[in-house]
């Protein structure tokens, strides 16, 4: 056996040993999953939101957020979001050209409100991403399991198009 062949075999064996040592299939890691948002409040629009800093909108799945492969007690996510409290307000269009009148749009945008909350993640066995539900009174619920919204096994049962109460409980 040549010296080069011995070096290649030694190198190959060393790589296998190193890679085997890196196998953490039994370790507590995280995996990427899509983010999906649901607005349950009829009188507002969620402009955008973040899950632990990963930005998303309500327009379908957004990639991605890191979710622990195994649930553990005390697991939470930090949610930030911005709402338009009057999404049906008519904003005048410019007389010439396309788009909104900039002054009117700036006045409308000044009414946007930002919120944040640390939200507990309910227990899950397998994750299929993170669903975020925006409820009245700036309440938020999340789900990280594999059931689809509306399924019998989906734990969040609040209806869509809920009304914001005149006063929110503290």
Structure notes:
- The protein has 170 residues and is an alpha+beta fold.
- Strand 7 and strand 8 form a beta hairpin.
- The chain has a domain of 115 residues.
- 16% of the residues lie in helices and 32% in strands.
- The N terminus is likely disordered.
- The chain has 2 helices and 8 strands; from the N terminus they run αβββββαβββ.
- The termini are far apart.
SSE diagram, text form:
Elements (H helix, E strand, L loop, with lengths): L2 H20 L7 E10 L5 E7 L2 E3 L5 E7 L7 E9 L17 H8 L3 E8 L9 E6 L3 E5 L27
Parallel strand pairs: 1-7
Antiparallel strand pairs: 1-4, 2-3, 2-5, 5-6, 7-8
Distance between the termini: 79 Å
Helix content: 10-25%
Main β-sheet, spatial strand arrangement: 4-1-7-8
Radius of gyration: 24 Å
* Contiguous runs where pLDDT drops below 50 for at least 5 residues: 3-27
**Share in β-strands:** 25-35%
Task: Quickly count the helices.
Answer: 2
Largest beta-sheet details = 4 strands, mixed
State the secondary-structure class: alpha+beta
What is the multimeric organization of the chains shown? single chain
The tally of strands reads 8
Order of helices and strands: HEEEEEHEEE
List keywords for this structure.
DUF3304 domain-containing protein; 170 residues; DUF3304; globular; 8 strands; four-stranded antiparallel sheet
């Amino acid at each position: 056996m040549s010296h080069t062949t011995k070096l290649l075999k030694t190198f190959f064996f060393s790589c296998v040993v190193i890679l085997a040592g890196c196998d953490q299939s039994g370790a507590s890691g995280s995996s990427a999953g899509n983010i999906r948002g649901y607005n349950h409040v009829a009188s507002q629009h969620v402009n955008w939101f973040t899950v632990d800093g990963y930005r998303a909108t309500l327009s379908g799945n957004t990639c991605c957020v890191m979710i622990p492969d195994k649930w553990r007690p005390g697991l939470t996510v930090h949610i930030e979001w911005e709402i338009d409290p009057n999404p049906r307000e008519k904003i005048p269009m410019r007389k010439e050209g396309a788009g909104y009148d900039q002054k009117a749009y700036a006045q409308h945008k000044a009414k946007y409100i930002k919120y944040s909350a640390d939200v507990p993640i309910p227990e899950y066995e397998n994750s299929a991403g993170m669903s975020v539900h925006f409820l009245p009174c700036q309440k938020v619920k999340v789900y990280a399991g594999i059931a689809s919204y509306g399924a019998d096994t989906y734990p969040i049962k609040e209806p869509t198009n809920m009304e914001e109460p005149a006063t929110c409980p503290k």
